[in-house]
Amino acid sequence: MNQFWENEFVQTAGYYSVVILCMIVFLAIFELVTKYRNWEEIKNGNVAVAMATGGKIFGIANIFRHSILHNDTLLTMISWGVFGFFLLLTGYFIFEFLTPKFKIDEEIENNNIAVGFISMVISIGLSYIIGAGLSQINGL
């Protein structure tokens, strides 16, 4: 049975499945903390929401990329991925705090593409910083 679990195809499918489940949970959490409904807004053609959501998806995937590369067990990979996600979520709240002249959620909901773009870039940028930190924490 050990040969089955050590098979690279099985491991890749396992990582893929776990990350997809985590992505669904994390996007649901983002849905709870934003004032707009991501998928409804995207369905209605809101490009700002699509960009912000795309940045979150990329950010989460990039964090898990680093977590997969630098951890040898599935449980450890999940743990560091969850930690990275909460850092990304914290970045979202810091972005909101640093823009007191307008509300990020309202601007994105109103299809302000400039704010959606900045939100996307912040999520992607922070995911690289978080990923680099995860690499250092694990000694690689």
Automatic annotation (TrEMBL):
Organism superkingdom: Bacteria
Subcellular location field: Cell membrane
Predominant place of localization: membrane
One GO CC term, this protein: plasma membrane
Keyword Transmembrane helix set for record: yes
Keywords, alphabetical: Cell membrane, Membrane, Transmembrane, Transmembrane helix
Record's bilayer topology term: Multi-pass membrane protein
Keyword check for Transmembrane helix: yes
Xref: Pfam families: DUF350
Transmembrane residue ranges: 13-33, 74-95, 115-134
Family to which this protein belongs: Belongs to the UPF0719 family.
Protein name: DUF350 domain-containing protein
Organism whose genome encodes this protein: Cytobacillus depressus
